[in-house]
Write a structure and sequence with these properties.
The protein has 5 helices and 10 strands. By secondary structure, the protein is an alpha+beta fold. α2 links the parallel β4 and β5.
């Protein structure tokens, strides 16, 4: 498995605006309408990456708990579907339904949103406060496929707890590690 680390966008960065199609509802979703009252988690994921497959159940659990506390979750796939058809919008919809995603699963066909967020890998997690300023970016936790570390979501949950409690997150923010985003080849 190739391992790519996230780029660690600077804290305090304002969330770049987007409007993308949700593959499940087939409606356009934009950041302003979807942001949470307390905060927003934006995740770059995809269907086929073993690192994402490894964390799917935990991100669903976390989203189900924290959505009730004013945190919105948005998943985005930016992969090149011409060369990776398993990540097509049709397959994204099936995947989201099968995994019981309680959040929109958006398709970034142009890859402009991934570039705006400086996303590098799947999964890549970003937590923004109510004012859409970045307060956390990095890993879900230390668990990776086949490393034997239990999947807990501790790093993301700690960041969300700090946000809810209006406390500064002084914990070391470690980059996420996963598959690289499958960028389209330039012509």
């Amino acid at each position: 498995m190739a391992r790519t680390s996230s780029n660690m966008l600077p804290l305090g960065t304002e969330a770049p605006y987007f409007e993308l199609p949700d593959t499940v509802s087939e409606k356009l979703v934009n950041l302003d309408r979807e942001k949470g009252k307390v905060g927003t988690v934006i995740m770059f994921i995809c269907n086929h990456c073993p690192f994402v497959i490894h964390v799917n159940s935990k991100i669903v659990d976390i989203a189900n708990v924290y959505a009730k506390l004013g945190i919105s979750f948005i998943a985005i796939s930016s992969n090149d579907v011409e060369n990776y058809p398993q990540d097509s919008p049709e397959n994204m919809k099936v995947h989201a339904v099968n995994e019981h995603y309680p959040f929109p699963y958006l398709y970034d066909e142009s890859q402009e949103v991934a570039k705006a967020y400086d996303a590098a890998c799947t999964p890549d997690f970003y937590v923004f406060n109510a004012g859409l300023k970045l307060v956390y970016r990095g890993q879900l936790d230390d668990s990776r496929p086949e490393n034997g570390i239990a999947l807990t979501g501790k790093d993301l949950k700690h960041a969300l707890d700090c946000l809810i409690l209006d406390k500064e997150n002084t914990q070391l923010q470690k980059p996420s590690i996963g598959c690289n985003i499958k960028w389209k080849k330039p012509f």
